[in-house]
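ok trying this again, last paste got cut off
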Amino acid sequence: MIRDPKDLVRYTAPERANHWAVGMTFILLALSGLAFFHPAFYPLNQLFGGGVWARILHPFIGVVMALSFVAMFFRFWKLNIMTPTDKEWLSRIREMVDGDDHNMPEAGKYNGGQKLLFWLLAGCMALLAVSGIVIWRAYFSALFPIGLIRLSSVVHATAAAGMIALIIVHVYAAIWTKGTIRAMVYGTVSRAWAKQHHPAWFRQITGGGK
């Protein structure tokens, strides 16, 4: 892709690599996790070399995802702190869904919906990590009482389902808002995109330019 010199940098190469590391490991974990969740999805184990290998690989891939997510969390958490403007944005989200974003509060680098998604994903990730350690049979499950292991299994499955739902929303929103995927693939956005969707951020990085 030929970059327009007027385009704005939204994500650096390390930030994009971090995002895709989380995304790819999430896909692998969702596929292997679904295979464990219900017999109808059991054939997905074949993507990992069979049931035994899927069970071996799943928690290790989970460790990679958790570490990648922690790195991403510390990159972006300050940018995702909720402000009164974000709360107003969320209160008017129906207008956005209906396709009318002209009267929405001006968003910074992230709008209220993106910030809410960030914190919900962080919560799900924390639950997955903690419960995953408790139920990791090969290394840790012998350290915990059976009641806690059973509870952690439920928490793990529930958090995983929640995270899958949130990621579906994330992907849908990225496709729906034309130009968003380009930002995470190439790192840049057009000035028109930034001015329309994140005007406060646009003014911040351009010094109020056009």
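PB: full thing came through this time. The CA atoms of residues 59 and 182 lie 31 Å apart.
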